Structures are given as structure tokens and as C-alpha cells.
Amino acid sequence: MTTLQRTLAEARAAGRAALIGYYPAGFPDVESSIRIVQEMVAGGCDVVEVGLPYSDPTMDGPVIQQAADRALAAGTTPKDVFAVVRAVAEAGAAALVMSYWNPIERYGVDAFAADMAAAGGSGVITPDLIPEEAGPWISASDAAGLDRIFLVAPSSTDRRLKLTCDASRGFVYAASLMGVTGTRDKVAATARKLVERTREATRDSGLPICVGLGISNGDQAAEVASYADGVIVGTGFCRRVLDAPDLDTAGARVRSFAAELAEGVRAAAR
Questions:
Q1: H or E, element range at 212
Q2: Residues in the active site (predicted)?
């Protein structure tokens, strides 16, 4: 079992969903981003997705794009990303990387997988990679013992759901709506239906289903936790750092936000 698999299994055994936070490495600088992910874990995140900043983030909304742009301007590299991954693992949470495919391919697929595993990472989320084109990544992740997380969406056909779930390991990422990341007033009505459809595709494997996009407070986290195995939140963490006057304030706000989300997730214990 990877740390991610064990973490999700423990949350399921406790009758609750896992809280998964996202934060881009290097924002506003590498050392500060390490401080922020540590606060996320201290506040209650079971899993942290470390974002690899990229110049063409097709799935990211304006807040995460702004954070990633600042990380890129600060000179953040994949090696820095692995340093943040290591910090997450050392803080006691399961560490993932979320990255578009181009940076992984440029780094070297096998080398990326090996360095991720060496940093203590559990797996990688690849939002723009589909299973049919993932042969090199499937081989590399198998060799390194990493989980590979693909995405499904409300537009996914039943065939696409099955194909994606069969190729995924760790969990499958259910994008709750057709759009980019960001906070919203309410959870998309498509989220529950997508999870129900994906459950059919994972009936034999029991693969966990985690929901992201648009979750911005504890009540919404509780709502999603009532039917999903994991609740994914990213924009709210970035927003609190962007709006803070200094790192100490940012850290306190991030920890408080994580605690609010963790309370919501636990309130929906099933």
C-alpha cells in the first residue's frame, strides 16, 4: 500500500471522507510554500497535492493561475516541487503532485517517477493525460510504485468512466463541473450524479472517488463528504495566502481554513 492508499483506507474505516488540499510549490517562494503545506497538514489535511507550476494551466482558474505565475517568476523548478513533497510527507500526510503532462515529459518520465518516489511522494495527478496516451507513465509509475490519478468529468461517457477508473490507482479524480478551478457559492449539482455513475465503474475494484472544483467552505466540504471518498480544495488555500499581508498571517489563515474543512468532512461521517 502507498501512503495515499493507506490514508484513504483509514478514513473510509473511520466512516468519513479524506480532506485533500492543493497548493502550488514555490508560491510565493519555495521555503514559504513549505511553511504553508505544513500548516495545511496541521489544520487537518490528510493528503496534500503539490502543484507543479506551469505556464499553460488549462484546468486552473484565475486564483491558482496567479499563484502559479508568482511561483514561476520566483524560479520554481521540479526539484523544488520534490522538496515540498518531501516536507508534506515528513509532516505526516500523503503527498501527491498535480502536474500537466508537458513538464513531466520534459523532465523525463522515468526520472520524474523515480525522483517523486525518492521524495516520499505517493502518486501524481495528471489532468491533461488520458489513459490511451499514458503508456510511458503507466510503466514508469508501476516501476516506481506510484499511484496514478486520472480525471473524469460530467461529460464522460460510461465507457470513458470505466476506462479511466481501470487505469487509475489510489483514487479517481471526479471534476464536479465542466470548468476551471475556483470557489463557488454552492457545489455543482453534477457532482453527486458523477460520483454515482463512477461508483458503477469502480464496483469491482472499490477504487476511491474524490471530488474537486468549486468547494470553498466547511458546509460544502460536508456536503461532498456525504457521498465521496475525498474532498479536494485548492483555490481557498491560495486565496488566503494571496490576501494575507505577511507569511505568519497567511499560515494562520491556512491552518484555520483547513480546520474548518476538516470539521466539515468529519461532520459528514457515514
A1: strand 209-212
A2: 49 (proton acceptor), 60 (proton acceptor)
User: pLDDT tens across 174-218, in order?
Assistant: 997 544 444 445 556 788 999 999 999 999 999 999 998 778 899
Q: Which amino acid is present at 249?
A: T
Contact 220, 237 (CB under 8 A): no
Strand partners, 231: 19, 211
Query: Active-site positions?
Result: 49, 60
Look up residue 127 and give its three cell numbers.
489532468
Q: How far is CA 167 from the centre of its chain?
A: 17
Q: What is the pLDDT of residues 217-231, one digit of tens each?
A: 999 999 999 999 999
Reference 22, options 54, 58, 57, 46; nearest CA is 46
d(CA 50, CA 195): 24
Burial environment of residue 238 by CB neighbours within 10 A (0 to 12, 13 to 18, 19 or more): buried
Question: Which fold does the domain 3-267 belong to in CATH?
Answer: TIM Barrel (3.20.20)
